[in-house]
Amino acid sequence: MSHAYDAHSHTPAPAAAPRNGLGLTALVLGLVGVVCGLVPILFWASGTLGLIGFVLGLAGRSRAKKGIATNRKAALSGVLLSLAAFALGVWGLVTVVTAVGDAAEEIDKELNNGSAAVTAPYLVPARH
C-alpha cells in the first residue's frame, strides 16, 4: 500500500525577500535634504535629513554586503546624497548666521547714526 504523503519530503521554505528599506530610505532622505539645502533658511532640515540619511545609507550598504539586501547602488547613492545634503545644511547655517550678523550690524549702525538727529527735543506747542 502506498501513501501519498511522505514524511521526509517537504517543500522548501520560500526565500526571504530582500530587505531594501534602509537604502531606499537613505536615498529619499538624501534627495529631499539636497532640495531643502538649496534654500539656505532650511539648513536645519537639510542637515538633519542628511545626517539621518547618511546613517541609514551606511546600514543599508552593510545589509547589501551581507547579502540581506539587493540595493547596493541605491544605498550608495543615499549615502552620497545625504553627505551632500549635510554639506548644504552647513553652508546654509553659515549663510544665515552671516546674513543675520550683517543685518544686526546695519541696524545698529543706523540706530547710532540716527540717534544724533533724534536727541533734539521735540517742540511741543504750549497750551494756555
Structure description:
The protein is mainly α and 128 residues long. It has one domain (21-111). It has helices at 21-37, 43-66, 72-118. The longest helix has 47 residues, at 72-118. The termini are far apart. The mean pLDDT is 86.
What's this, in brief?
The chain has 128 residues and is mainly α. It has helices at residues 21-37, 43-66, 72-118.
Considering the chains and any ligands shown, give keywords for the structure.
128 residues; mainly alpha; rod-shaped; 3 helices
Total domain modules: 1
- Give helix % range: 55-70%
Q: Profile the largest sheet.
A: none
- Count of extended strands: 0
Detail the poorly predicted runs: none
What structural class should be given to the helix and strand makeup? mainly alpha
Strand content: under 5%
Secondary structure elements and their pairing?
Blueprint: H1 21-37, H2 43-66, H3 72-118
